[in-house]
């Protein structure tokens, strides 16, 4: 069972199914976010359905590109033998 | 009366007995003693303590309250898991070092006075360094020395702070330091704690040294040093607001560097820094909920981070490779490792039903409840980054992705068992959070499983996954290393050596030449002159003095009659003169 599960995420032939599954999960999460009760919210944005989805997506994109920019342009990433 | 044995003492005793045993006996003892330590922790109740009066100072060798107990619990659990994971090793030295390391970690969480804490703190640095040296290659030895150097420096700061604090307050008992004070003692101790908590810019020792440690050693390292630092911060610096900024910066710093990293365990090291950032920020907030969050997140973190390090260690052990650019496609032959690793990854990413969800969210909610919107939002960004790296990037490039062609077997069963136990805790805490909440220092009124909270977390995480899928090619690991603040002392050391080799050596050679040439001639002339002075003046004086003494001696000899009564008369006369003269003066001589 474990091997089957792991293979589903590894094998190229399941790529289409994985993509569809992801889309379905994303849609369900956003729809569910419209219907959950929001009794304890601290900030106004928490009352906007789907805000966390957008926030997560934007955060991830920002992390990838800002980090790579800093790494390449900021002189942080160096050859592996830098200290040798 | 002590109803339980100090677990630090148990581990210390174990460390002494281990080298006497061989083979399966040693292995069995290495698991049995941590189990005994776990039982001993289970028997403790808040409030027990033991005092010793030593050299004029009241030492509190152990003092248990709810806060120390929650850390002791997870330390004991991790001690058992770590030693099961290390069952197969044959290096007695590593076992003993791990025992001493765990013992000193217990020593810190039960220390009631600063001196006990200091001793445990130093032992912790030394014992943990051995786990790095034990890799026995040039890179590890160099990293081990750097690690030791940084921690010894931190220990000196702590020592100085303790002495100052003791002199100023007259007390060596541990407790919240007055953070209005902000004096030198306060800052020295805080800096030494922040160093062990790996707060940037004092964090580079962690990502420098942990990836060089042995496969089993890194598992222990990931658990104890930074978390004892979190413990002492909660104990001594609750509400120190400066920690909020540092904590948030740490959480994001770890995420940024993890994007750039190619070494699998160094990437996990950056995520230790990131996760400890949540705890440090929570300590800075200082509310009951935040401190509960810091303690519970430390508890959950030790177990899931241990699991992640065990997973990465299993890959390193079975493939001999550690760079993401050289790994990939291992899922075919290591499916169980993949599954267990992913449980740790989902736990650190705070997926519902996993341990991180019930602890990390407590910190973020505490920030929101404390009206710190920016803190809450930035920590949420860091959560996205955590899942991106430990949950997606690392497993993708290690287990899936491009096939590196290796077909390694699953790791030894003891390693899988240890990972399995950690995985059970990661899920158990997520499903039954009340079990953990009941152990926390303050009463908990927090319910993580509200509908809005679940969809909010899933929204952040699953749309992070979407971004990962869409922008995967930009995340490809690169064959580089990242410069961190260890540059200062790694390059600083070469600068020092350059100064020693160039300017200092040249100056020294110049001095030598000068001495051999003009200097030597001058010296010769000087010495000839002084010889003359010696013979003509000094010797003449000495001879004269000696001759005079000889003459005076022969005169005196004639005075010595050898008759006792003569001597007595002279002594009495002398005494009268000695006493009489001042008396004569005192009475007012005419």
Automatic annotation (TrEMBL), chain A:
The lineage of its organism: Bacteria, Pseudomonadati, Pseudomonadota, Alphaproteobacteria, Rhodobacterales. Keywords: Membrane, Transmembrane, Transmembrane helix. It comes from Parasedimentitalea denitrificans. This is Uncharacterized protein. The chain crosses the membrane at residues 21-45, 51-70.
From TrEMBL, chain B:
Residues 111-381 form the NADH:quinone oxidoreductase/Mrp antiporter transmembrane domain. It is a multi-pass membrane protein. This is Na(+)/H(+) antiporter subunit D. Its main location: membrane. NDH-1 shuttles electrons from NADH, via FMN and iron-sulfur (Fe-S) centers, to quinones in the respiratory chain. The immediate electron acceptor for the enzyme in this species is believed to be ubiquinone. Couples the redox reaction to proton translocation (for every two electrons transferred, four hydrogen ions are translocated across the cytoplasmic membrane), and thus conserves the redox energy in a proton gradient. Pfam families: Proton_antipo_M. The chain crosses the membrane at residues 6-25, 32-54, 66-86, 98-121, 127-148, 155-174, 186-206, 213-234, 240-260, 267-286, 298-318, 330-354, 374-394, 415-437, 457-475, 564-586. Keywords: Cell membrane, Membrane, Oxidoreductase, Transmembrane, Transmembrane helix. InterPro entries: ComplexI-like_HydComp, NADH_UbQ_OxRdtase, ND/Mrp_TM. The keyword DNA damage does not apply. It is found in: Cell membrane; Membrane.
